[in-house]
Amino acid sequence: xxxxEKYINYNLIYNEKYIVMKKMLSIVMLLISSVALYAQKDVTxxxxxxxxxxxxxxxxxxxxKGYTSSPNNKDVLVGQFNGSGVNIHIATxxxxxxxxxVQDAKTINESDIKIRxxxxxxxxxxxxxxxxxxxxSPDFTLSDDEDISYGIxxxxxxxxxxxxxxxxxxxxxxxxxxxxxxxxxxxxxxxxSNPTEExxxxxxxxxxxxxxEKYSMRPVWFMINEHFGEYYITMFYDNEYNRANGExx
Length: 249
Prior knowledge:
Elements (H helix, E strand, L loop, with lengths): L3 H8 L9 H21 L3 E2 L2 E2 L4 H10 L3 E2 L7 E5 L2 E10 L2 E9 L5 H16 L4 E3 L15 H6 L6 E6 L6 H13 L4 H5 L3 H19 L3 E9 L2 E9 L11
Antiparallel strand pairs: 1-2, 3-4, 4-5, 5-6, 6-10, 7-8, 8-9, 9-10
Helix pairs in contact: 2-6, 2-8
C-alpha cells in the first residue's frame, strides 16, 4: 500500500494523522484526467521535441538546437545539456524514435558522481513537469556514506532515479469525463456522493494507480555507470508508446 504521508511530503499537504482526503482526491482526479488528454496528444519530450518520428528528422531537430554530429559516428550528437558535455544517442523501434539517451562525455570520481547524481535528483524533484515513479519512496538521493564502488562491483547494484513526465495540457471536459470513467468503474453514484473516510482512501489508491499506469508511458530516468573506476551519468527519455510490445512475435 502507498505511503500517503511520504507522498504528501513530496508535493501536497498533510497533517499528523492522515491526508486531507478531499483535497488530495481532487488533485488525484485532476492528474488522472490530464493523463487522458496527453495519451491522445502528448508523448515524452526532450528539449521540447517529441520523442517520436524518424531518426533522421530527430537528428535535424537536435542539430537545430545546436548539437553537432560526432566525428566518430554521424548518428551520435555532441554538445551541452544541463551544464555538462554529453553524447546523445537515438534509439528506434519500427523506424520510430523510442528513446533519447544522453550520456556524459567525461567520467568523474566517486565523490563527484554522488554529488552530480543527488543534484539531478533535486532538480527533478523541484521541477513541476515531473513526479517520481515511486510515490512511496520519492527521494532517490544517495546518503553520504553510500559506497558506490562496492555497491556496483560487489552487489551489482543499480543507482538510478525514475520520474514520469507530466502532460503539458489539461482540458476541463476531459477532466470531468475521466473522473466519471475511472471512479464509476468501481464505485456507485451513491458512494461517490457521500464517501466515508475509508472509501476516500480507497478512491485515492484507485486514482493514483490509474494515474501511474498511464504516466509510466513517458518515463525520464537516469543512472550511474562505471568505467575503469570512474563514473558517469546516463539519462533516458523514453516514449513507451513506440517501444516493442510483442507485436512482431
